[in-house]
Amino acid sequence: MKTVVIASNNAHKAQEIAEALPFPGWEFKTLRQMGVESDPEENAETFLGNARIKARAAQDACGGLAVIADDSGLEVDALGGAPGVHSARYAGEPCDDEANNRKLLAELADVPDENRTARFVCTLVLLQEDGEEVVARGTIEGRIGHEARGEHGFGYDPLFYPDQLGGRSLAEVPGEDKNAISHRGNALRALKAQLDGMNT
Ligand code: IMP
Question: For residue 182, what is the DSSP state?
């Protein structure tokens, strides 16, 4: 049995990762299930850099086991890619989704529809026991709307209108439908394809 530690305590994220990588002989554990705490400062300038920081810290804390870590965020073209790696705390500490959404709407108040293009990005790092890295990235393209809509999801979902959803926000569709098109779902599918190719 190969234990893969998920460098997160978010149960929902852990379940999505475990379901997307159904390799026989792999068992997934969250940091909490491992009985360890790992909360390194995510001070890199890229999603990959921050995912690496989380993966390495978790591997150190778990005695060198394989680890999977992710980092994600929203890039808005009219804001030069902001909030980007600062998505969680865009409106400052502590992390507050509603405050972040209010700030985003204010920043884009004068930006016309055609220039409100944006994407969610997710980068995943699987750090193997021997230090080898497998990296995958997924995106979902869309636009920032003028009002929050929908009750599902989290973060910027109520303001993000994916190109594929014909005018519905990402918070207006259930979780399974979001996973089928989301940045995290796409990154997990890309990671699985790479691992399939390596005969893991
Ligand atoms: P993390 O990588 O899970 O820590 O996410 C960083 C931040 O990016 C979150 O706090 C959200 O603000 C934003 N974010 C990442 N993924 C999503 C998503 O699927 N929906 C909405 N917001 C997201």
Answer: S
Nearest CA to ligand 1 atom 22: 155
Q: Is the CB of 158 under 6 A from ligand 1?
A: no
User: Hey, what domains does the chain have and what are their CATH numbers?
Assistant: 2-198 (3.90.950.10)
H-helix or E-strand spanning residue 101: helix 97-107
Catalytic site residue from 39, 60, 70, 71: 71
Cα–Cα nearest to 147, from 88, 83, 102: 102
DSSP for 13-76, written as a single string: HHHHHHHH---TTEEEEEHHHHT---------SSHHHHHHHHHHHHHHHTTT-EEEEEEEEEEE
- Using a 6 Å cutoff on CB, does residue 90 contact ligand 1? no
* The pLDDT of residue 189: 97
Q: Supply 157's token pair.
A: 């979902």
How many angstroms does the Cα of residue 52 sit away from the middle of ligand 1? 17
Ligand 1 atom nearest the C-alpha of 97 is 12
Task: In whole angstroms, give the CA distance from residue 20 to residue 2.
Answer: 16
Residue 83 half-sphere exposure toward CB, CA atoms < 13 A = 22
pLDDT in tens, 5-44: 999 888 888 989 999 999 999 999 999 999 999 999 999 9
113 is catalytic: no
Query: Would you state the structure tokens that stand for residue 92, as one six-digit string?
Result: 């400052």
Cis (ω within 30 of 0) for the bond into 94?
yes
